[in-house]
Amino acid sequence: MKASFDERRVIGDELRLREEMAARRLLVDRRLDQLVPSERIAPANIHAAMRWSLFAGGKRFRPLLLIFAGEALGAAPDKLISAACAFELLHTYSLIHDDLPSMDDDDLRRGRPTCHIQFGEAAAVLAGDALQALAFQTVVEDDALSAELRVRVAGELARAAGTPHGMVAGQAEDLEAESQTISGSELEVIHRRKTGALIGAAARCGALIAAASETELGAITNYASCLGLLFQITDDLLDVTATAEDLGKTPGKDERAQKATYPSLYGLEPARLRAGEVYSAACAALAVLPGPSATLQALARFILERRN
After folding, report:
1. Rounded to a whole number, what is the distance in angstroms from the first to the last CA of the chain?
2. 6 to each of 10, 12, 75, 103, 275, how far by Cα in Å?
3. How far is 224 from 217, CA to CA, in rounded Å?
4. How confident is the model at residue 5, as a pLDDT?
5. 31-75 pLDDT, tens digit each
6. pTM: predicted TM-score of the whole model, two decimal places
7. Would you call the peptide bond into 290 cis, given omega within 30 degrees of 0 as the criterion?
8. Ranges under pLDDT 50 in the chain
9. Cβ–Cβ under 8 Å, residues 78 and 61
10. How far apart (Å, rounded) are the C-alpha atoms in residues 22 and 28?
11. Do the beta carbons of residue 220 and residue 90 sit within 8 Å?
């Protein structure tokens, strides 16, 4: 049976997205390699720990989102790359700290031992601290941006990382919700802070660097808000349905820790339906953009259908 026009278009968009992701990921990795000190430079164990976690084969989703949002609104990649790397540095710090015994207590990340397993808990804490500091240093020293833009990007990064509505708040609420009964609205708030805040800020920063209008910035904000929630719902689903080989980390930990998740609260099929609804809302948010948004739509589908 021949594929329909719509099916061929979706397949074509997915292939183009994968090619674009690979090309932008290469740019991000090259810049990250320049930014992070070599493990030959003292303190060697901290730099080795930073690089162990940073170059462990991550998808680079947050920096790619920043770049794609900026490019959709006319920004050149070389103006976006350092800010994009700052988001990956901050994200990696959060993963190192999330895996610690005092947090999620995980020993596998991206198919290899977590930072504290490989280097010890003290080195892992310090490596995370250093990555967080380097993220802000990267923004404030970004010669591609005006002083005003550097301040705005740093502000977006800080708000998304901290409290009361950012990643730290979401992680704290996620830990507090373990073994507790919470509502669907409370679960959504946790997800939007723990995962969605940094994703939303990445997309917004791409738009800001591209000198987006208020309408364009609003559309990107709404899109990314949906995308962040979609990412966490699919993450919850994968923890139940995927293998350790697929995930590169330990599956089933959410259930064992009695974490609040979409599958635990609603069941697998309703959670999948909710993911589809959020995906549709993300695509609908892009309708007001004046330029092409096929890449951003394909990115949302990529998140909906991801397997790791």
Report:
1. 30
2. 6, 10, 29, 45, 21
3. 10
4. 47
5. 999 999 999 999 999 999 999 999 998 899 999 999 999 999 999
6. 0.93
7. no
8. 1, 5
9. no
10. 10
11. no
